[in-house]
Amino acid sequence: EVLIGIPKSFSIYAMTICDPNDVDIAEFVITSGIYAMGVGNLMKSASNSSLSYVHFTWTPQTNQIGLQELCMIGFTE
User: Taking residues 5-34, what's their average pLDDT?
Assistant: First the structure.
């Protein structure tokens, strides 16, 4: 649940089931974003080399009440 004017932050993770020394996630592409959402850089987990993630920040506005859609695709090297 989100509240108008209250910042929300979250991360979305993706895991590669291949050897991360051979195949790695190189990029996340956002195919459907939320207006005025901040998107961080692609990061690697410090504790698990198979995990990559992107951090998001968003402050919902009055006109954003209701369902919002965020779609992204992860690409390997």
Answer: 90
